[in-house]
């Protein structure tokens, strides 16, 4: 819903919002290296901790003898899963699946933390102590190939107690009519009458696609440092200081019975978390170890230990019924999905069925069924990249229909997309139409069927197109506070700095509403403050600006009231010399607050803006404003695709060398409707990022497992290839501002809706006429061409 | 227990956090970090048991009597950001580890830990090197520049400014590594082309995908610097 519920949502003139090149408030700290991430903390007298990590993909620790390890000089503590302290630990939020002991003797992937933690004077002694443990392992069958694991005769890999799901938003929702069998759980969602839909169809298209697994790849290896200290200002008992768990310090404090006011965290830098919100054990355990040893303890994962999934792999088979004009009448979507290790997010599996690309279509007959296979491949912690990826099954359907009918996929998309209000609404979606018009111009769009265009250099040319609704899961509320203090507007916030400049967007909105410049707003970072602009992806973050806009207007009203009050009853002069006492007659005398406005850092008379006083002179009061709330629910969260407002489109052009199999992305094009652009510089960068994510998973990144041992062979940054500056293609972007989002001024988050797994793959098909599963490396392209 | 390590404090106080990180305050903090590097060791801490000694010889005897099988730490003389210092390290330590654990410098980041990402880049005797793959003992007598040294030098203000104006960072973890590489290019070639910049940054990985921003920022900074800052 466009921002019509809030104050000034329909503002037409912007001085601050939309301005480029405003440095982030923490950018200098980051650029100069003084900003500390969890792994950077080194404190005096600090100990180090490491987990025993499993060399096996699936195993149980039967017993551990720690005697030799304990005898090593420099070992300070060893804790095992049988220790009472460990048994008492609960988990922080964002756990999935059945509750499980915080640490147990079961290792369900290679490198899993299992059974033992050692604490020592340095990391090398930790390593030596781990080597000196006498561990008796029971090695169990494992699954890293989910197609094999799906076989009903394959040994069951997961203990039965891990199948008891408590009710919860993020937990998998197994089909009650189709109980688990072997390693496979089942989930089915049906809408409409699938058989009738196929009966209505003139033609049927069937196709397979593989959604690739790829890494969440947090740049800063996750880890923490914790210590306990006396803090007489906050009651009896020790307080906890933890660094390296930005955004989750209260949850971790809660694990140890600590209230928020006794849990300290000063670090502001969360690092890159691409919707991978799950805390790692290295971030949760240090308070316990610090308590036991009486010294600060640090525990950090290595890069190899940080290869969790952003997306689990999935094999899909699609059957789509169409009319002769390309209108879809039925969709039958069957997937075999990696369920990952115990506790993996169901966003990669069953939860995707609730969002789906299909609900943007007029087609009402849809069946989505899924076999979810337990595996020992790895864990997906949360991921917000889920929705866009499942989307590509629909993108591919549109492309295949176009190919089959010799039509432009854009026309097929237009034919099938429903209107703004429901699946039966036949009206066009204005944002979508606007994106398409602009996109065609941007790309000089001139569709050709597959294998039809050769470039002057002899390579084959391919193109593809994709759309998506801008997802917004802004379910959370925001607690905003602003303060006018000595003429300066302060915006206190706990941050954090997540990389999307969300705090800065809020400061820009405050400046806009208060007639100030961005630089005038003092952003006060303090972990004790309640305001955080984080609320569910870039979209929830954008929504925070709506709440802050309301807060700014409350502050504005209070400033204007105070200006009138002080005009009528001037405060006595301060014996210390007022810092801003009005000089001469007060221009607001006899007026009412509604006669005043804020502009250029002053309180001014609306009827004659030349008459005014700098804010600091208009009122000497300290004024607070607070607002707790959230914008009206986004269309996306109300309709899950069945209602449409802000949309975005993406395009790709590739060149494929038929002799070498090398694919070059000539360019990506993005025409997106973020509703209203708040901070263009970071918006552009977010779009680039998501296109490079898409490039990486389609051309470069690959998990390779040794099937015999279940070991991940590519868990390092040499073999698991991310795009570099030499790899990336140009990303041409255009932004539309239809003002139809629900955040401030009709803004909407967009970024990960553009992430995709098949836009490049489709363009490759359009170039060479054959399918290549991602990543489309030269050898796979040549193989698909029958040349290798 | 007293620690003789050249460690930084546990972080900023809440009061400090409220201070905006302006260009000048960040520059001063970087300069302070260099200032805090201890030039001459006066305490020698046993990395195995934490006991401290007043000189290296005593530490050596302690090893002979208490840890006869362990490898003795060594001292190495480095010149970090033009500050000569003596550092007690273990022979297998990387330069990155020495910078972080002994010298209290936080700008050199560890992303891949095997020479693939460039986050730990420093300039050694004029050349960019990866501090995660170089042993600290190999750096004896070498002149090493870290991001703190670049940040503290007003000459490079246009470069830092341009990075901040162009958001050549998202999460910011890789950023110091890129900036060190950028400085190394500008040292050699004050007027680089976009292609030359791309080639020079080819060893730096940004997971957040800020790549195009770097060349924009570096080109702007080069122009500003050629005009005298
Ligand atoms: S951490 Fe040194 S190159 Fe990646
Ligand atoms: S800014 Fe996050 S890794 Fe580069």
Verbal overview:
The complex is a heterodimer of chains A (788) and B (229). Chain A is α+β, with helices and mostly antiparallel strands and 788 residues long. Among the domains of chain A are: 27-35 and 476-575 and 584-629, Aldehyde oxidase/xanthine dehydrogenase, molybdopterin binding domain (Aldehyde Oxidoreductase, domain 4, 2-Layer Sandwich), CATH 3.30.365; 420-472 and 634-788, Aldehyde Oxidoreductase, domain 4 (2-Layer Sandwich). Chain A is 23% helix and 24% strand. A seven-stranded mixed β-sheet of chain A has the order 3-5-1-13-10-11-12, sandwiched between helices. In chain A, strands 7-17-16-15-8 form a five-stranded mixed β-sheet. Chain A has a four-stranded mixed β-sheet with strand order 18-26-27-30. The model of chain A has no long low-confidence stretch (mean pLDDT 92). Chain B has 229 residues and is α+β, with helices and mostly antiparallel strands. Chain B has helices at residues 14-18, 23-35, 56-66, 95-102, 147-152, 157-165, 175-188, 194-200, 211-226; strands at residues 44-45, 52-53, 74-80, 83-89, 121-124, 127-130, 143-145. A five-stranded mixed β-sheet of chain B has the order 4-3-7-5-6, sandwiched between helices. In chain B, helix 6 runs antiparallel to helix 9 (211-226). In chain B, strand 3 (74-80) and strand 4 (83-89) form a beta hairpin. The model of chain B is unreliable at 1-19 (pLDDT under 50). Chain B starts with 13 loop residues before the first helix and ends with a helix. Chain B has a domain at 109-229: [2Fe-2S]-binding domain (DNA polymerase, domain 1). At the A-B interface, helix 1, strand 21 and helix 17 of A face helix 1, helix 2, helix 5, helix 6 and helix 7 of B. One FE2/S2 (inorganic) cluster is lined by residues 110-113, 115-120, 130, 132 of chain B.
């Amino acid at each position: 819903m466009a921002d019509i519920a809030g104050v000034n949502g329909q503002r037409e003139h912007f001085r601050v919002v939309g301005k480029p090149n405003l440095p982030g408030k923490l950018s200098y700290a980051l650029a100069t290296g003084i900003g500390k991430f969890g792994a950077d903390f080194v404190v005096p007298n600090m100990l180090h901790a490491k987990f025993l990590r499993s060399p096996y993909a699936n195993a149980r620790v039967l017993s551990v003898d720690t005697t030799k390890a304990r005898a090593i000089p420099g070992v300070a503590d060893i804790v095992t899963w049988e220790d009472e302290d460990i048994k008492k630990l609960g988990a922080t939020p964002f756990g999935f699946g059945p509750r499980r002991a915080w640490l147990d003797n079961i290792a369900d992937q290679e490198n899993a933390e299992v059974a033992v933690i050692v604490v020592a004077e340095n990391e090398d002694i930790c390593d030596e102590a781990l080597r000196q443990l006498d561990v008796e392992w029971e090695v169990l069958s494992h699954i890293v190939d989910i197609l094999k694991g799906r076989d009903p005769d394959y040994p069951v890999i997961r203990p039965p107690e891990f199948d008891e799901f408590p009710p919860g938003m993020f937990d998998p929702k197994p089909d009650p009519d189709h109980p688990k069998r072997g390693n496979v759980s089942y989930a089915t969602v049906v809408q409409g009458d699938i058989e009738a839909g196929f009966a209505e169809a003139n033609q049927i298209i069937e196709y397979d696609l593989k959604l690739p697994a790829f890494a969440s790849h947090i740049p800063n290896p996750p880890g923490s440092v914790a210590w306990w200290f006396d803090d007489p200002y906050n009651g009896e008992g020790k307080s906890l200081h933890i660094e390296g768990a930005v955004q989750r310090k209260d949850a971790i404090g809660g694990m140890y019975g600590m209230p928020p006011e006794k849990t300290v965290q000063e670090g502001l830098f969360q690092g890159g978390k691409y919707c991978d919100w799950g805390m790692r054990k290295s971030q949760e355990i240090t308070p316990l170890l610090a308590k036991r040893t009486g010294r600060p303890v640090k525990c950090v994962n290595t890069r190899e230990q940080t290869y969790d999934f952003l997306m689990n792999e999935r094999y899909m088979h699609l059957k789509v019924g169409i009319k002769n004009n390309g209108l879809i009448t039925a969709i039958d979507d069957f997937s075999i999905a990696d369920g990952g290790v115990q506790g993996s997010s169901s966003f990669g599996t069953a939860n995707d069925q609730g969002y789906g690309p299909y609900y943007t279509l007029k087609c009402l007959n849809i069946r989505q069924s899924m076999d979810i296979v337990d595996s020992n491949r790895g864990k997906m912690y949360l991921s917000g990249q889920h929705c866009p990826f499942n989307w590509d099954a629909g993108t591919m359907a549109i492309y295949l229909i176009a190919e089959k009918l010799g039509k432009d996929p854009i026309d097929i998309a237009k034919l099938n997309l429903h209107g703004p209000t429901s699946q039966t609404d036949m009206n066009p979606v204005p944002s979508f139409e606007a994106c398409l018009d602009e996109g065609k111009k941007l790309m000089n769009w001139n569709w050709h069927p597959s294998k039809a265009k050769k470039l002057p250099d002899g390579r084959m040319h391919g193109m593809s197109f994709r759309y998506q609704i801008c997802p917004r899961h802004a379910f959370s509320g925001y607690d905003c506070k602003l303060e006018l203090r000595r003429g300066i507007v302060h915006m206190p916030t706990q941050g954090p700095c997540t990389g999307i400049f969300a705090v800065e967007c809020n400061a820009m909105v405050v400046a806009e509403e208060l007639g100030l410049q961005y630089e005038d707003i003092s952003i006060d970072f303090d972990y004790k403050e309640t305001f955080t602009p984080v609320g569910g992806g870039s979209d929830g973050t954008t929504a925070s600006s709506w709440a802050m806009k309301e807060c700014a207007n409350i502050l504005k009203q209070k400033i204007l009231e105070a200006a009138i009050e002080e005009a009528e009853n001037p405060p006595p002069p301060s014996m210390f010399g007022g810092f801003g006492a009005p000089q001469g007659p007060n221009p607001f005398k006899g007026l009412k607050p509604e006669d005043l406005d804020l502009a250029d850092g002053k309180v001014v008379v609306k009827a004659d803006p030349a008459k005014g006083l700098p804010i600091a002179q208009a009122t000497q009061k300290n004024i607070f404003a607070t607002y707790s709330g959230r914008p009206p629910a986004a269309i996306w969260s109300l309709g899950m695709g069945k209602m449409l407002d802000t949309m975005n489109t993406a395009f790709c052009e590739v060149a494929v060398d038929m002799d070498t199999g090398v694919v070059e992305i000539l360019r990506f094009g993005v025409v997106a409707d973020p509703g209203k652009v708040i901070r263009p510089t970071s918006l552009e960068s977010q779009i680039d990022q998501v296109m490079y994510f898409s490039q990486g998973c389609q051309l470069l990144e690959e998990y390779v497992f040794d099937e015999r041992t279940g070991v991940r062979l590519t868990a390092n940054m040499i073999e698991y290839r991310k795009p570099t500056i030499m790899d990336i293609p140009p990303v041409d972007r255009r932004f539309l501002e239809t003002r139809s989002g629900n955040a401030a001024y009709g803004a909407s988050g967009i970024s990960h809706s553009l992430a995709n797994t098949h836009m490049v793959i489709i363009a490759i098909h359009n170039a060479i006429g054959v399918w290549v599963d991602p990543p489309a490396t030269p050898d796979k392209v040549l193989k698909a061409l029958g040349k290798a | 227990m007293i620690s003789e390590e050249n460690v930084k404090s546990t972080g900023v106080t809440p009061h400090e956090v409220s201070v905006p990180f302006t260009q000048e305050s960040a520059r001063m903090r970087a300069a302070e970090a260099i200032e805090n590097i201890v030039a001459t060791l006066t305490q020698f801490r046993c990395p195995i048991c934490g006991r401290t000694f007043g000189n290296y010889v005593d530490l050596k005897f302690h090893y002979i009597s208490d840890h006869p099988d362990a490898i003795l730490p060594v001292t190495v003389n480095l010149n970090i950001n033009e500050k000569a210092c003596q550092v007690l390290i273990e022979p297998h330590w990387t330069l990155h580890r020495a910078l972080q654990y002994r010298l209290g410098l936080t700008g050199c980041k560890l992303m891949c830990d095997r020479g693939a990402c460039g986050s730990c880049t420093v300039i050694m005797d004029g050349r960019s090197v990866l501090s995660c793959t170089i042993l600290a003992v190999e750096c004896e007598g070498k002149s090493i520049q870290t991001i703190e040294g670049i940040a503290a030098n007003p000459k490079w203000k246009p470069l830092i400014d341009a990075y901040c104006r162009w958001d050549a960072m998202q999460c910011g973890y890789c950023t110091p590594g890129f900036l060190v590489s950028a400085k190394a290019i500008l040292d050699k070639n004050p007027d680089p082309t976009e292609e030359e910049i791309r080639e020079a940054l080819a060893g730096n990985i940004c997971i957040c995908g800020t790549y195009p921003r770097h060349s924009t920022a570096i080109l702007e900074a080069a122009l500003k610097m050629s005009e005298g800052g």
